Amino acid sequence: METIYEDKDIKVLNKPAGINADDIEGRIHRLDKDTSGVLLTAKTPESLAFFQDLFKTRQVKKIYIALLVGNLKQDSGTIETLLGRSPGDRRKQKVFLANEPGAEGKRMAQSRYRVLKKFQNYDLVEIELLTGRKHQIRAQFSNLGHPVAGDKLYGFKGQSAPEGLKRQFLHAKSVEIRIPDGSIKTFEASLPEELKEVLNKIT
């Protein structure tokens, strides 16, 4: 696994898809198994507490790249929903409306997106997570009718996938965070070759 940055407090990894982030020692936040990109790990218990507090208090800027099925109506926008575990499938998160039965106690999830490139049947988008809920991007865009390409859990029955795509097209592009010495750092991981190849084949 490639190391993007390391000092006495933090080690930043470029996690490939297929690796379970829960198995990585000192991880500060989570990335789904089939999502690639920037993953922060702490090197001491003190730095773990420091960084987790920044995530908890939303002092971290996280940018993702996703390929969505279909074309969004608007080229940019903010999605604000309640999110909680799906009663029908415990592996999934479900979007709840404020006055819907079962919405009590569900957590607010906010995502800001902009379309980077439009294809015939797909949109390549950049998404900033304003909150960090489990499966937030996957659940919210599936609820809009535009699931992440290749997503087997949130995708629709019979949904087409781009040629050569072997997993969900979701990549943690960058994380901007303050480190213990007080400086602000931005850690970036470029799109993996496998995903670049997929884009090259789409018309």
Model description:
This protein is mostly beta strands. Helices cover 14% and strands 37% of the residues. The chain has three helices and ten strands; from the N terminus they run βββαβββββαββα. The protein has helices at residues 45-56, 136-143, 193-201; strands at 2-6, 10-15, 36-42, 61-69, 76-85, 93-96, 107-118, 122-129, 170-178, 184-188. Strands 1, 2, 3, 4, 5, 6, 7, 8, 9 and 10 form a ten-stranded mixed β-sheet that branches. A hairpin with a 7-residue loop joins strand 5 (76-85) and strand 6.
From the coordinates shown, what is the CATH architecture? 2-Layer Sandwich
Give the strand tally.
10
Q: From the helix content, strand content and strand pairing, which structural class follows?
A: mainly beta
CATH topology: Pseudouridine synthase
Largest sheet: 10 strands, mixed
CATH superfamily: Pseudouridine synthase
Q: Look at the structure and give the CATH class.
A: Alpha Beta
Radius of gyration: 17 Å
How does the SSE layout of this entry go?
Elements: E1 2-6, E2 10-15, E3 36-42, H1 45-56, E4 61-69, E5 76-85, E6 93-96, E7 107-118, E8 122-129, H2 136-143, E9 170-178, E10 184-188, H3 193-201
Parallel strand pairs: 3-9
Antiparallel strand pairs: 1-2, 2-3, 4-8, 4-9, 5-6, 5-7, 7-8, 9-10
